[in-house]
């Protein structure tokens, strides 16, 4: 005499996906938090200054540079010649038009206040965009 199990014929086995989804959501949350921690600079829209090694890389060496100076008496100079804001804008536009990969570098006296340097950098950034940089002196330890 044969006996049949009624349970085996009635339904296919069920897979409970809820615990698996909980585990996946936990792993996803972990990776999101870790990636936000590692890229915190981009979250705040800040690009912090970075230093490179002792030499310059090949790409930076190929770029032409226009050096703008800001003296302690707040006088702006290009090639050791004093310029007013209109002349600065004109020379920067001309340089950037002639040198599509060129950069403009601001060298400011260390005795100046942050505010005066930031004002000139803002003016230069309005003209040159992301091709404007602030030069810093690197201390060798």
Model description:
There is one protein chain. The chain is of the alpha/beta class. It has two domains: 14-41; 63-134, Nucleotidyltransferase, domain 5 (2-Layer Sandwich), CATH 3.30.420. Helices cover 45% and strands 14% of the residues. The chain is built from six helices and five strands, in the order ααααβββαβαβ. It has helices at 6-10, 18-38, 40-43, 58-62, 85-98, 114-128, and strands spanning 65-70, 76-78, 81-82, 103-108, 132-134. A five-stranded mixed sheet has the order 3-2-1-4-5, with helices on one face. Strand 4 (103-108), helix 6 and strand 5 form a beta-alpha-beta unit. The longest helix has 21 residues, at 18-38. The radius of gyration is 30 Å and the shape is rod-shaped. The relative contact order is 0.11. Mean pLDDT is 76; it is low at 40-50 and 54-58.
Average pLDDT rating: 76
The parts where pLDDT drops under 50 for at least 5 residues are: 40-50, 54-58
Question: Number of domains in the coordinates?
Answer: 2
Q: In DSSP terms, counting alpha (H) and pi (I) runs of 4 or more, how many helices?
A: 6
Query: Could you tell me the number of beta strands?
Result: 5
Helix/strand class: alpha/beta
Q: Could you estimate the helical fraction of the residues in percent?
A: 40-55%
> How far is the first residue's CA from the last residue's CA?
93 Å
Helix and strand element order: HHHHEEEHEHE
**What is the radius of gyration?**
30 Å
Principal-axis shape equals rod-shaped
Largest sheet: 5 strands, mixed
Strand order of the largest sheet: 3-2-1-4-5
Strand content: 5-15%
- At CATH level 2, the architecture of the largest domain is 2-Layer Sandwich
Examine the coordinates and then state which fold CATH places here, giving the name of the CATH topology of the largest domain: Nucleotidyltransferase, domain 5
What's the CATH class label of the largest domain?
Alpha Beta
């Amino acid at each position: 005499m044969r006996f049949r199990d009624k349970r085996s014929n009635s339904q296919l086995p069920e897979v409970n996906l809820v615990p698996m989804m909980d585990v996946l959501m936990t792993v996803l949350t972990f990776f999101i938090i870790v990636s936000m921690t590692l890229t915190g600079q981009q979250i705040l829209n800040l690009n912090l200054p970075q230093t490179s090694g002792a030499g310059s890389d090949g790409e930076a060496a190929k770029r032409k540079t226009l050096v703008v100076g800001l003296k302690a008496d707040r006088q702006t100079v290009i090639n050791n010649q004093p310029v007013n804001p209109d002349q600065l804008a004109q020379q920067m536009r001309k340089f950037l038009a002639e040198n599509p990969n060129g950069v403009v570098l601001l060298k400011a006296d260390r005795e100046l206040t942050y505010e005066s340097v930031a004002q000139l950098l803002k003016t230069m950034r309005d003209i040159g965009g992301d091709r404007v940089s602030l030069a810093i002196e690197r201390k060798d330890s």
